[in-house]
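Weekly structure sync, notes
Attendees: PL (lead), two postdocs, one rotation student
Agenda item 3: pending single-chain targets
PL asked that the sequence for the first pending target be pasted directly into the notes so everyone works from the same version. It is reproduced below exactly as submitted, 231 residues in total.
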Amino acid sequence: MNYIFDVDGTLTPSRGSINSAFEAWLWTFIQSNDVYLATGSDYPKTIEQLGKEICESVKTCFNCSGNSVWKNGKEIRKNDWELDELQRDFLEAKLAESKFHNKTGNHIEERPGMVNFSIVGRNASLEDRFLYRQWDEHKNERATIAKEFNDIFGYEIEVHVAGETGLDIYPKGYDKSQIAEFVKGPTIFFGDKMQPGGNDFPLAQEIMKRTGGRAIQVKDWNDTWERLKTI
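Predicted structure, written out during the meeting:
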């Protein structure tokens, strides 16, 4: 059995580090199972969250939604796509239009083969992120921006709600669904954003279609741990 795990909100708190007790348990689990990571973050951030030992021990670490692929601590595949000027102008306009009061900087973060867009910004503190989550729950801002972007650029680019505060943007077909072709055999995928429009949704659908596997939506890392104990 293969196991694929999202990271933010699935193995760790969003943008946070793994719980030490869960880390020790997961390390043991990795030794006797085929484990893959599937995250929108880049590899250095994944090491920061999970530690180098776990990142180098899994079968493959699919970063940037599969656009940067790492194995045994070495990058073996990379997509060099970048935003064009019109797409960047759209995001900057949405940033300027947003009435959210605390914008912290680093709003358009370019990663291999994708971009993460955040109104609150990647420099946000935990308090800033909490305030934006409340704002977004009330205003539905991220889903609105995603729909507008997809309506304009959806013939070539697509956007999904990601993590607690961001949007992931990539060329069509270069979302997490591309990871499924590299994982052969029965597979269980754990993620926290499997609802339509979430960045785990495309891979969840592909896993069930390709392998007849299972996609398990979790509430947080503790929910993941409790479910794994029952398998």
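Discussion points:
- The mean pLDDT is 93.
- The chain has eight helices and eleven strands.
Action: rotation student to compare against the earlier draft before next sync.
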